[in-house]
Amino acid sequence: MTRLRVIVLLVLTALILLPGPVTVARALDPCDDPELSIDQRVATLLSQMTVAEKIAQMDMLSGRPLANTVQLDTTLAHSLVSPDGVGSIHDFYPASASLANELQAFIIANNRLGIPALFIEETLHGYVQPGSTTFPIPLALAATWDPELVEQTGHAIASEARAHGTHAGLSPVLGIARDPRWGRVEETFGEDTYLASALGTAMVRGMQGDKLCAPDAIVSVVKHFAVHSQPTSGTNSSPVSVGKRDALQFFLPVFHAAIGEGGARGVMSAYSEWNGVPCTGDSWLLTDLLRDQWGFDGFTLADMGAIRMLATCHFTTDSPGASLQRAVSAGMDMQFYDFPSGIFRSELLALVESGELSMADLDRAAGDILRVKFELGLFDNPYVDPDHAQASSNDSPHRELARQAARESIVLLQNDGVLPFSDDVKRIALIGPAGTSDYTGGYSPRNASAVTLYDGLAALRPEGVQMRYESGVSFLNAGNSIPSPALWTEDEASLGLDAEYFDNPDLAGEPVLTRIDPAVDFNWDTHSPAEGLPPDSFSVRWTGWLKPTQDVHGWIGVSSDDGSRLWLDGKLVIDTWDTGVTIRRHEVHLRAGERYAIRMEYRENLWGASASLRWNVGAEDMDAAVALAEWADVAVVAVGENDMLVGENRDRLSLELSGNQAELVRRVAASGTPVVLTLISGRPIALGDLTGRVNAIAAAWFGGEQAGLALAEVLYGQIDPSGRLPITFPRQTGQVPCNYNHKPSKILRYVDGDARPAFPFGHGLTYTSFEYSNLRLQTRSCAPEDTVRFSVDVRNTGTRDATAVVQVYINDRISSVTTPVKELKAFQRVPVAASATQTVYVAIPVERFALINAELDRVVEPGRFDLMIGESSEDIRLTTSFTVE
Hints:
885 residues, alpha/beta, seven-stranded parallel sheet
C-alpha cells in the first residue's frame, strides 16, 4: 500500500469519527466504473442526485477562513460544507498539500454520494500561493512571441498548482487590449487577435497537458467572456460598445481558438455589459455561440459577483432569484461569491420547484461541473502526494524558465549604440523609483518579489565597475507616510492616533477593537487587520492631532484601495468614500509646533485592504539624482509603475509617466551623461518628447521573480534582446486607441501633434540587424481550402548571434466589408548566427484570411491579397501578392 493511500485512509477514518453529519461514500456503482464513458458516468450520477445535491454542485465556497491554518478546523468545516455537497472551493491556498487532502476527504465523507470538490485558484502568471514561481506578467510573455515558452510556462504553473491540490486555474485572460488606460492590460496578450490566439492557446495547452487527470495538469478557465477588454473610457467593467461583427472578427476568435484548439474546459463570464446585454445573462454568448456553435461542454463560472450585479449594477433583474434564473437559463453553471450559500441554494430550489428554472438547465449546469470533475480523475483519485508538492514548488528548472521568459520579454525600443555597455563604462548611475522596485504584477503569488534592477546590475557587474543609486522621485508623488512623531492621540498623552476598528464597512455600532496606531500606513492585503475582524467588510476610524515638527507648505493626502475620508480641523477635505483612490492630496500650510485636529475614516469592501495617511515632507530630491548622473559614465533611469498605478481597478486617465518621473528623465538627460531609459510597467507608457532626449529605451514590463537579472544581462550585453511589442506604444494618451490594425478610413492627423505611434506593434531592436531577401511564393493562385506556402531568407548582418522574429501580415485589397490595413497572420522566432543566413518556411491556411461579412457569416472572399514580411507592423521588408479564386 502506498504512503499516500495510508495517509488518506487515516484521514478518512479520523473524519468518520468526528461529530457531525458524516456519511461514508457510496458503494461501487456504474458511475464509479472507469470502463464507462465520462458522459455515461455523469448521466448515471445525475440520476442518483436530488435537486438540492445538483444545486450544491453549482455553489462555490470561500476557503479563506481555512487558508492560514495547518490543520482543518472541523467545526468551521461542518458549518460551511452542506451534507448536499459543494461544487468548488476558492481562496483556500492550503499551507500544505496534506491540508488540501484533509479538506477534500472531509467533503467526500460528508456528502451522501461522496462527490469531491473542485479547488479553483488564481494562476495568471504563477500559482498564487506563497513560495510558487512568479513568471512575467502575460503582457510580458506576449512580448516573447514564443508559444513554446508560453506553453512551458503554463505547464510549470499547473504542475505547482496541482501538486498543492488545486484543480482549476482562473487564466489566461484572452481579451484584446485596445485601450491601455485599462489597468488589466497587463493581464492580456496584447492587441492582436492572431498573436493572442497563438499564445492563449499555448498557455491552455501547457496548463491542461495531455490528460487532465495527470498530476501536473489543471483546468484552464479562460476569461473574461467576452469583449470585456475594451471598456468605455478604459475603466474596468464599464459598458462595452463593440459591434457583433467586430466582436466576431477580432475579440471572440481568441476564445474560440483556446477552446477549439487548446481544449479549455472552463470559461469565466465577464462582469460587463456588451451592447446593452450583461455578459453573465447573455444566452447568445453562453449558449448559442459557446455551446451550440463551438461545441463547448466544460463548465462556465461567473466572475466574482457578476450574477448579483445583474440586479445591483446593470438593473436588468430585481432580486437574487431573478438574477439566478436569468444567468443559469442563459448558460451559467457556477456562482462566484454572488450570494451566501444558503440564499443561493434556497433561491435556486424555489426556482426549480416553481418551474421558472427548468430541470434541463439544472442538469446541464450540474452535469458540466461533474463532467470536468470526472475528467480530472477526482472520483478515482481525489488526493495529491504531499512529497510531490514540496518538491515541485519554485524548483530550479522553474526558476530558470522564469528567467528565460524574462530575457525574451525585454523589448529594446531605441538604441544609438550606448547599449550594450562598452568596456569604457566604469561608473553606472542607477536612478529612478523602479530601480529598487521588486513588484511582480497583479495576481502574483503572495509575498512574491522580483530581483530588482539594482540587485541584478550589482550581481552581474564586471570587475572594476562602480554603481550607485538615487531614487530622485517616487512613482506617484505620493509623498511619505506621516510619521508617529507628528501624530498624537486625542488626549495628547501618546504618539500616534486613536484607532477604532469595526466589523462592518459602515463604522456602525460599537468598535470591536480600539488601540493606538503609531501611524496610518497599512497594507493588509487579503488578511484581517487583527483578531476578531474579518479580512473583508470592515472599517476603521483614526482620530487625534497632527503636530508637525517643521513648517509644511505642500499637501497632506490619503491612499486607499477602497473608500476613505479625511477631516482637518473639522473640515472634510478629501472624500473618496465610494471609490477609493491611489493618492488624493489637499494643499496645506502648516506651522511647526501647532496642532491640527485630524480624522481619517476607511472602509474595506472586498479583496485587498490598504490605507495610508501621507504628506509631501521629505519626499523627493532630484538634485542628488542629477549629481549622480554627472558622476557616471552612463545613467540608467528606471521609471514606470507600481501596484498603485496598474492592475485590476487601477485604470488611468493618462499613459504618460506618473508623478515627477518625466521631469526626472529630462533633468538627468540635461546632465550630458548618456541615458538608458528602462520602463518597468504593466502597460505601454506614452513618452512624448522623452524619446528624443535619451540614448536608449528598453521595455522590461513586470518581468517576474528573475526580472532584474534578465534586464542586467541585456544591458551588459550578456544576451541579445529578442522581445517584440505585443501592443502599440502611443506618443500621447490622446492617440488611444492606436492599434496597428486600424481601418483604412482612419484619419491619422491632429492639429496639435504627431498622429504616429512612438513604437509600433511588433517593434523591437537587437544588437545586430537583419536583411530579408528571396521571397519565394509557391503559387500565386489558391482556393479557400488551400494553404499559402512561401519561404524567405533572413541574414544576420552583424557580429553577434541574435533572434529575428519574422512577422507576416496580409491586406485584403477589396472586400465586401471594411478590413484593416494589415493584419498579422503568422510569425516565427528564428535564431540566426552572426553573418549567417537562415531560410524560413511559412505555411498559412487560406481560412486564416476569412472575414465576418455583413450577414455575420465567416467566409473567405475571393480577390487579391497583399503579403507583407517585416520586422514590425511598420518595418515591412518584402511584399508580394496572391489571389484567392
